[in-house]
Fold these 3 entries.
Entry 1:
Amino acid sequence: MVPTIRRLLERLDEAGIRQCHWKSNWALAETLEGATDIDLLIHRQDAQRFREVLTELRFEPSIEAGVQAIPSTEHHVTLDEETGTLVHVHAYYRVITGESLAKNYRLPIEDMLLSNTRREGIVTVPTRGAELIVFVLRMMVKHTTAIELTLLARQTRQLRSEVAWLVTDDAVEEAGKLLPVWLPHLGDGLFREAVESLRAPAPIGRRVVLGFRVRRRLRGYARRPAVRARAVEASKFAGVVSHRLTGSSKKLTPGGGGGVIAFVGSEATGKSTIIDRMHRWLAESYTVRRVHAGKPPATALTYLPHVLLPTLRTMFPDQRSTRVERQTRGPEIAPRRTYPLMFGLRSVMLAYERRALLTRAFARSANGTIVLCDRYPSSRSGAPDGPQLGHLPAPDPLRRRLTALETRLYEDVPPPDLVVHLTAPLDVTLARNAARDKTEPEDYVRFRHALSSSLEFDGAPVRRVATDRPLEEVVREVREAIWETL
């Protein structure tokens, strides 16, 4: 069990808060390991004390990303420092359930669940009969729309496992005694038919018919008319598809909003490895996107030059960006010399693409996304990924215009919420580079290492993290720095 989850459950007991983990208890072990949300039903009169406990344990409020908020529910997340797990509490003060996306039914069974409980270790859960009622109603309603049937088809194995664990003769008998008290409109006969259709399972057509019969009995508990509920469902499904196509997960956003986290450093300091780990960690709970400011994608304006770039590099090898950078080397490394026009045009194009990419990143962060940015423009001219022309002589009007344009484009880029500056001694980066499948020339690694030692980011907090130590130590420090920022 994740230590923070244990402390939370113990504190809830100590405070006398009426609560239970009210659904999906067949997978309780995974929940206690932090692999899934902790779905707690809280008595409404204990809500304030519950929030006080969460505050004691440093939980932060979060909201659902890009969707209509579900009433009477809250999300709270904290970092378990010992394991690095993001612990996500999904708190309910009323039972809002039904379809996976629309959640269209508010069932008046909170007291039924909270007064019919048992213990699984230190966890309070409903009795199986009480939990069976919730499970059957959820599953039956999910059989009444094409979208929900599509989602159910992907959960067949999970559904069978939960049915095998939950549907016992004793649970069915107990549910039969609870139904007339808490949901008299449903009817014992229909409920038992629904149970058997899941236990067998019955053909899909039979389950769909039963689903519509159950839905009709529950219409008095619906939050929206059927047509509006289907519209909400379609909208949310479109959002899920859109997020999957764009490579992000539609989950939560921190209560304080999203953020742009930049990772910078010289070659072979571990940027890609650390970003991979941070992406997997954050994506467990939050909406996360990853961008690469070192290699920004082409825009509509720069698409054609991008297509021609490989040909131009072959025709003019002396004007490749890496060669010109080594020749000019910045004001502190070599005597100043002007730059070739093609290098100037390429630098302005990169500045334009970076501005476009990072402007979109900040728009996403304003809407709650956490953006992890591989490399970021430094405010120091001549530094990697920053302005390349400002420190070089511009003896003619054209070069002065190019320099001014590049400067203005970079000035338009907002500072990130956090810069994680990864560092390592030169001998370590050289050894790591030599061990790569695709190595960079040694003199280039030395050059970039020298430039990366004094990066500047006006207006942004910078956390320097040494990576010449065990990876897990580095991951822990970066993780804590990001959590403090969010």
Entry 2:
Amino acid sequence: MNLMMLLEMAAGGFGDRVAVGSLNDGLTVKQIFDHAGAAAQRFRSANVENVAMIDIASPSLPVCLFGASWAGLPFVPLNYRLTNQELDVLLERISPSIALMQPETKERISNTLGVHPITRDDLISSSVPEIETSTDWNMDGEDTAILLFTSGTTGEPKAAVLRQRHLVSYILGSVEFMSAGEDEAALISVPPYHIAGIAATLSNLYAGRRVVQLPEFDAAKWVELVRSESVTSAMVVPTMLSRIVDHLVSEGSNSPGLPTLRALSYGGGKMPQPTIETALELLPDTNFVNAYGLTETSSTVALLGPEEHREAFSSSDESVRKRISSVGRPLPTIEVSIRDEEGNELPSDESGEIWVRGEQVSGEYKGLQLTLTEDGWFPTNDGGWLDNEGYLFVTGRIDDVIIKGGQNISPGEIEEVLLQHSAVTDAAAIGVPDQQWGEKIVAAIVLHEEQKVDEEELKSSVKEKLRSNRTPDEIVFLEELPYNETGKLLRRVLKEQLVDLGDGSTV
């Protein structure tokens, strides 16, 4: 199994379709194939061990990705927003390598590293010869396809290993070959170094759907691209959707809406229920999908589909309506289990750690011991529970649990209640040191523009719906919460903002 198998099928089945870019000047599937072949020759001749990418999304992304697989080398997309020192550290770990970067990036990294730079223009030459379909790539599914570095928020970044069989299994198990119509276009606005960006590139190409890229997210530009490129599907993270909704609302009653957008998937973080409900109202003809997955699982492992969104949104049954806050049910190829701290399986409606198992699940980090259990289960470090119909609810990272008075408290359940208040646009609950309780609960709140709310009113709303020990001890109002570009709330950064490390008092 090799990713090149997917590209070879696509080139043979619909090679003349535009794969990435605008209809007028984008690269076709066959051109991606030809450029990947030329890139593979260049990568092999460079005598390197990895193919890195330190660049924004562009048509060079699929060329670099498939070219690396053709050459039998791991593809390693790096976060171009890192500091110079952080980039040097990661590049040293994957040296020797050839790296796609622009001249300004080359100036940022150390010349002593074994890195051979290559630019987009170098990689995609207009004079590349047409390459005959060939299978001189290695079909060993155990070969490393991609190394993705984790964010390293709690220590040194780890390099998640995704082997060829993991990614191919994910695509074959979740995407139907050539299932997209010739008029379909997908807008990708997540960066190349995130698993969602990689998965979207692979799945849309295999389906035959043209990819439109937005390297730097901006709500107004996103809406403009959907309209100008007749985008039919897109993937966003919750913070993006919140800004898109705000932009559409700001256009008022004369807004043309997004008439071509048939499907919108979201994931990468907790979606505030008011945001998705407003989006469903604004875009009634759009099919919404909530996708839950991790880097270590080669992307999506559970989905809440369009009809499930509509059913939950319109239902008067509280247990059904609550499912709009779930991530749906596992894919047919995936098993999900909720376990306690000893690894024992828990019954429905009991919270614990989410474990997953399936062919696409890696659970492997370069240079570290395999994290899979003997029978193939991967403990995700995400907390959650399954209802009696098999819907999965994710409460957040287990490391984020607040321990107050010896009791474990999930920040997610507090945040969910706070976000239901009409004045609140964003909320986060964290634990800060406290001499009496060990930790106390501090809620950071972002209000809608020109909205005000009393602190006690917010505390009361939590107390009414949750047990009293879940009520925030303090509430702090901020202009915004810290997120990374893939929609992940940076709780450590937030805690640093709220806590004076000298005496543990909130500021």
Entry 3:
Amino acid sequence: METVFGIAVDGVAYGMILFIISVGLSVTLGLMRVVNLAHGAFAMVAGYVASYAAQGLGLPYVAALVVAVLLTVVATLPMEKLLYRRIYGSANELSQVLLTIGLTFVIVACINYLFGPTLKRIPLPDALLGTVSIGPKSIPAHRAFVIGMGAATILGLWWLLERTDFGIKLRAAVDDPNMAAALGIRTERLYMATFALGTGLAALGGVLGAELLPLEPYYAIRYIVLFLAVVAVGGAGSIFGSAAAALALGIVDTAGKYLIPNFGEFFFYAALILILFRWPHGFFHGRAA
């Protein structure tokens, strides 16, 4: 029973990290029609910035988190204006892939040059090093914090996209950008805000998940397949689909590593194949936000 409980806690925490990072990719892919393979690189940048802020500058964990997210968003906005804006809604997905994978390699090279090719860590505060009691059980405080942040992200995104003017204008701009512009919706600013939202989520997940997805020089290349898998299984543009996919794949992957560690990530990809065989367009295809 202890093993099952440990698998459940670690699997849900791991799934929440996958969700927080992947849902930003899901938003840009499902709503803005951009295959952004540099999404994982943005998460890596935030993690490295938070590590430097915490260890090099001595900032508290929360301050390092906020600084990393804000700096990552600010640093990527010029890319949105100069590069991404040219490929929004492009029917040529190959150009999107080539642009964003090229940008990924540039970012990886810059990070290696600036921070060195070594594993980085983000020191956790004392409050996240202990345990939290849930009835007769105790779980690591950091895992509980990650799960709570994941739940807050789900609710916050649902409210933003379904219950605010921003969400209404975004869906209108996606469905018919020319008509939206004719009605006075400033689509360029709307797309920039959506891009910043996706980047901010990637940055948040990159910092929160440093304990589960270690910050190493090729983070962006190693983990982008995981993020794309969550989007594929959940359905592009679907918040709850991404959450369901991330939790399912996170629990399966964690269970496999707990029970049969020699098989590595076999169970993750086996589950991915089986799910896509049954739901080839994802869990929530056609019900995207």
